Amino acid sequence: MENGQNKSFFDDFANWASKFTGSAGAFIGATILVIIWAATGPIFKFSETWQMVINTGTTIVTFLMVFLIQKAQNKDSKAIQIKLNELIAAHEKASNRIVDIEDLTEKELDKLHKYYEKLSSLAEEDEDLHMSHSIDAAEDNQQLKMRNRRIEEEIKKEDQ
């Protein structure tokens, strides 16, 4: 895959703006602007217009930054999901069914989260720290337990 081949102007600008606004230079520049603005207060007699300059400026910058931050967040999130999907796909004991869980509803994710909490507590009871657990393995174990429980119940009924 070639980098930058199909980048749009917005992609290039968003990448540059994200890097720039997160830099020490941008912070220092913004701080200097605020100091200059504050220092000019006595010159403009702390008028409403003087106050509106900083209020309007910060509101516009904040409004535009929301979109740039969201763009950067979307790109980072997508890259992380792809990396995690690759790790899941590459690991022989991992369940491939969770590769696209980001498409699930919040309710479905909560249910899956509870399942993994339960899986985690089961793993803590395991004496082998290097034992791999997956949804598939847990389901197999659960089915085995259910079958054993049914057999035990049948034996108990026969004994009565």
Could you please describe the fold and organization of this structure?
With 160 residues, the protein is mainly α. The chain folds into two domains: 1-90; 104-160, no CATH class. It has five helices and no strands. The protein has helices at 9-21, 24-39, 48-90, 106-125, 135-159. α1 (9-21) packs across α3. The mean pLDDT is 84.
List keywords for this structure.
2 domains; single chain; 5 helices
Q: Give the assembly state of these chains.
A: single chain
N-to-C terminal Cα separation, in Å?
A: 69 Å
Structural class: mainly alpha
Tally of alpha and pi helices = 5
Q: How large is the radius of gyration?
A: 28 Å
- Identify the overall geometry: elongated
**Helix-strand pattern, N to C?**
HHHHH
Mean pLDDT: 84
Q: What is the strand and helix layout of this fold?
A:
Layout: H1 9-21, H2 24-39, H3 48-90, H4 106-125, H5 135-159
How would you briefly describe this protein structure?
This protein is mostly helical and 160 residues long.
